[in-house]
Amino acid sequence: MKAIIHGDAGLRLGEMPLPKAGKGEVVVAIKTAGLNRRDLYIPDRRGQKGEDLILGSDGAGTIEAVGEGVTQWSVGDEVVINPSLDWREESDTSPEGFRPLGVPDNGTFAEKIVLSAEQIEPRPAHLSWEESACIGLAGLTGYRALVTRGQVKKGDTVFVPGAGSGVVTFIIQFAKAAGARVIVTSRKEDKLKHALKLGADRAIDTNADWEQELKDETIDLVIESVGKATFNRSLGVLKPGGRLVVFGATTDDVVDIDLRALFNNQQEIVGSMMGSREELREMLAFSEKHTIRPVIDRTLPLTDALEGFKMLEDSTQFGKIVYTI
């Protein structure tokens, strides 16, 4: 079968053996798959030298085969893949054994995938196949950061630096559905316009003086994923007693913090990463209730997958990049 492979020969479109369903497993014929920033970073952590592995954490498709003991699914069922392996119940941190799908396990950038029957959910009825492909990782990450860890509530003002990522496009929609006010930043005018169209209440230039721009705002919650370039500026606009949630670091991941300002302001800094199956199901139900859809920048055939990697590396996209298979 065709797949996007990383091995000693680098990242490429190649051939891999067809998977077979073992006990408790299903084979899903992938129709669409979503590209994530994680896919840019994992090739160098792919495991043993010489091993070809399939990238990709997100996908949607139809069940092609079921293994022994699988009774809750049938051939032909339309499903989305849960990219959070072996994390079942909501918890403060991920359990031992948790890992995102896609290296060291074979991922979704292929015609078929085999995985545990526990790792799939019914495809949301309100989403297209393309939208279904990219709600898993980004939607779950955004939901846990905003709702579980951020404890967003109606009337909060949420500040999110960096408006273009797939996770942030979910956070904007989730926060608005929860009754919050949303302010985002970007260096690019087109991304600011897209964010406002998506529902953000304000969109400001990342290079602006945030404290001056936001002097009339009370920022209750910051959701950070940029890193060193914005971290201390985010703390600077967060209200005393406010919470800053970090789910990623697209720039340098080591920052210096003014501890005196932090404890004087009694602010909280909270880490967040992906989430559990319980939270995924909550997120899917919340999305269906509020008709929340992934924002898709580009849809590409699997044969043009490397073009999508280049777009993500250059951060030119607004929202998700999806592969059709």
TrEMBL record:
InterPro entries: ADH-like_C, ADH-like_N, ER, GroES-like_sf, NAD(P)-bd_dom_sf, Zinc_ADH-like. PANTHER family: DEHYDROGENASE, PUTATIVE (AFU_ORTHOLOGUE AFUA_2G13270)-RELATED (PTHR45033:SF3), PTHR45033. This is Zinc-binding dehydrogenase. It holds the Pfam family ADH_N. It comes from Sporosarcina aquimarina. Residues 7-323 form the Enoyl reductase (ER) domain. SUPFAM superfamilies: GroES-like, NAD(P)-binding Rossmann-fold domains. The lineage of its organism: Bacteria, Bacillati, Bacillota, Bacilli, Bacillales.
